[in-house]
């Protein structure tokens, strides 16, 4: 019999060893210490078979930006089950306990990044944001259709970066749904760590900001570089064609973004810029003058969202247009979410209550989560056969109300 219970701090190293086993990882001492410190700050749930820890799940204490609001949101991480205990309900037990805790503490949503996308839909998670990888051929100057912001650029010491760019990041987070909050520890240990955990060949982080000295920054780019050499075998001197990896770029205006992209594309001794996890509506894809020079090389589901309390989540967010629909919601894990409910929402707020009569739309909580931030259209899910539209036009009306000025997005993998 597997027992689901709190993992004490004394068992964190055991939890890490289980995670390293499951994810085929063998990190160095510094990374292990960083992981230990991270889990010490997290909510921790374990599955114990006797004294053996056979399953584990941790949750960051995040807040997540949603349209018009900022909600408490556990961010699941280090989810793992021992190979000896797969298909025995261990993950279901861990997830059930996490959802119970979120319900009891009034956290209406939960989020995760899926290492295996096929797993989490059955627990009510839907892919709510899309990430895009963009590559720039920087062997020549970046061709632009707009003029870059002419204000000065300057490098910022990583030790000072949180104070300098942190307020700008927080303001940008409020303007785009799907972005988790960052503690000073996450800034230091993940975004500004001296050594990149995934690839030791990358440089320490470089931070460039745009704006007049003494004024709040208008934008910033955080990047790392990696040298690569190329040459023939006939004695020709090798030439360096290094890589610039953009980890984050935030800008108040398209002109600020243009200046920052132009800057990283001009870094000496490099020939390519790669930006993983950019928003699908990144303005660069429009103001780049040559789309052979600026290419989208990948697109993928990023943040997976779970509506723990559907009513609280729907009434907390803002709405772009009036809508009144009866939703028949299916939720196999949280029965309080299941049933028929009348959603009446608009720019002045929303109500959500049990309803009699026929439903306009029938959908699983997973699909509702995918649409919640405005990144997935209900009409697309109707076309895919995942949402049933009983009243013609209901899906389009709900899409109009859910719409946001920019697509939801996060580059915060956790």
From TrEMBL:
Acetyl-CoA binds at residues 79-81, 87-92, 115-116. Homohexamer; trimer of dimers. HAMAP family: Eis (MF_01812). Residues 2-147 form the N-acetyltransferase domain. It comes from the Bacteria. Residues 170-198 are annotated as: Disordered. Residues 182-191 have a biased composition (Basic and acidic residues). This is UPF0256 protein. It comes from Streptomyces virginiae (Streptomyces cinnamonensis). It holds the Pfam family Acetyltransf_9. The active site is at residues 120, 414. CDD domains: NAT_SF. Keywords: Acyltransferase, Transferase. Belongs to the acetyltransferase Eis family.
């Amino acid at each position: 019999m597997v027992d689901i219970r709190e993992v004490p701090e004394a068992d964190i190293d055991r939890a890490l060893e289980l995670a390293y086993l499951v994810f085929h990882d063998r990190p160095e001492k510094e990374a292990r210490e960083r992981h230990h410190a991270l889990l010490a700050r997290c909510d921790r749930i374990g599955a114990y078979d006797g004294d053996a820890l056979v399953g584990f799940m941790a949750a960051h204490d995040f807040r997540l930006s949603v349209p018009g609001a900022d909600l408490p949101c556990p961010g699941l991480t280090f989810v793992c089950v021992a190979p000896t205990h797969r298909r025995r309900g261990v993950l279901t037990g861990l997830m059930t306990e996490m959802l119970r805790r979120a319900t009891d503490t009034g956290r209406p949503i939960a989020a995760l990044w899926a290492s295996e996308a096929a797993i989490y839909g059955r627990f009510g998670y839907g892919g709510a944001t899309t990430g895009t990888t963009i590559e720039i051929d920087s062997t020549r100057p970046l061709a632009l259709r707009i003029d870059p912001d002419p204000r000065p650029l300057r490098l910022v010491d990583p030790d000072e970066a949180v104070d300098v760019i942190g307020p700008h990041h927080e303001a940008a987070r409020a303007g785009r749904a799907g972005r988790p909050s960052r503690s000073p520890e996450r800034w230091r240990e993940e975004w500004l760590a001296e050594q990149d955990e995934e690839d030791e060949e990358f440089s320490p982080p470089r931070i460039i900001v745009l704006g007049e000295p003494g004024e709040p920054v208008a934008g910033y780019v955080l990047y790392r570089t990696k040298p690569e050499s190329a040459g023939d075998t006939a004695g020709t001197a090798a030439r360096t064609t290094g890589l610039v990896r953009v980890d984050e770029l935030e800008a108040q205006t398209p002109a600020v973004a243009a200046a920052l992209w132009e800057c990283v594309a001009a870094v000496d001794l490099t020939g390519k810029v790669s930006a993983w996890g950019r928003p699908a509506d990144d303005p660069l894809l429009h103001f780049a003058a040559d789309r052979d020079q600026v290419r989208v090389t990948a697109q993928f589901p990023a943040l997976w969202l779970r509506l723990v309390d559907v009513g609280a989540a729907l009434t907390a967010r803002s709405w772009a247009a009036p809508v009144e629909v009866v939703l028949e919601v299916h939720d196999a894990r949280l029965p309080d979410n299941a049933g028929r409910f009348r959603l009446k929402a608009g720019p002045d707020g929303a109500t959500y209550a049990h309803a009699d009569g026929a439903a306009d739309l029938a959908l699983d909580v997973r699909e509702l989560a995918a649409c919640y931030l405005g990144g997935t259209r209900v009409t697309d899910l109707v076309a895919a056969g995942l949402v049933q539209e009983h009243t013609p036009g209901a899906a389009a009306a709900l899409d109009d109300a859910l719409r946001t000025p920019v697509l939801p997005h996060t580059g915060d993998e956790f």
